[in-house]
Specification:
There is one protein chain. By secondary structure, this protein is an alpha/beta fold. The protein has helices spanning 20-31, 39-51, 59-68, 97-106, 110-124, 136-140, 154-169, 176-192, 214-228, and strands spanning 9-13, 34-37, 71-75, 81-85, 88-89, 129-133, 146-151, 205-208. It has a 5-stranded parallel sheet with strand order 2-6-1-7-8. A 3-stranded antiparallel sheet has the order 3-4-5, covered by helices on one side. Bound molecules: 2'-deoxycytidine-5'-monophosphate (DC). Residues 16, 38-39, 42-43, 103-104, 107, 133-136, 186, 190 line the site of 2'-deoxycytidine-5'-monophosphate (DC). 2'-deoxycytidine-5'-monophosphate (DC) is lined by residues 16, 38-39, 42-43, 103-104, 107, 133-136, 186, 190.
Length: 231
Amino acid sequence: MKNKKPTRVITIDGPAGAGKTTVSKLLAARLGCAYVDTGSLYRGIAYEVCRCSLNWHNDDELDTLLSSISFELKLQPEGVYRLFSSGQDITDYIRTPEITMLSSDLSAKKAVRQALLGFQREIAKNSDAVFEGRDMGTVVFPDASYKFFLSADLKIRALRRYNESITKEGQQKQTLLEIEQSIALRDRNDSSRENAPLKPAKDAIMIDSTELTPEQVVDKIAAYITREGNF
Ligand code: DC
């Protein structure tokens, strides 16, 4: 039997609002490969913690929940994944401010990161993909074909999130200042945690997106990939 060709992984890490999602989706569409938003998995765990009213500070309770969680990322015809938890599509419930903050708190837990590690690596075996997250290049895929780290000024990141929430909800749930404070808090949480903190991999290409459009960032990344060899 012929060996299956190894799949290739592009990692895009960075803080909230740096443009990872838009850029990763556009890049995946341009390269004709899959796009995986690993933040949705941390959000999915936060959703389950809320649904079960779990005391996640208790390690035994958290371990029991983690061993019972069954996630599936199902690729939709339009090329995006939706997150299913025990067969239920929870994609539309994981973007509230509460779930956002809780997912950051839970992501500092070793047991949570451990539970998702193998799952993420399994997804990568299916097809070439752009993986977006915080520790893609450092921990989950240290041997990725290409690694990028996106950053941008805090104020710009907050403004992007604010504008996105207007388009999504039609009305504002959080003020610009509240969004900025919540992003700053998450930055601190995500970068200072002991387990797989948010930081660029040593061999990541750094891109500051403060003054760039998503298309310009994708152009930069695509140019780098083509210069290095075809994806
Ligand atoms: O990318 P996001 O905002 O949807 O991620 C939600 C939280 O999940 C984020 O605050 C930190 C955590 N996360 C993580 O620790 N590692 C990842 N690879 C992705 C997300």
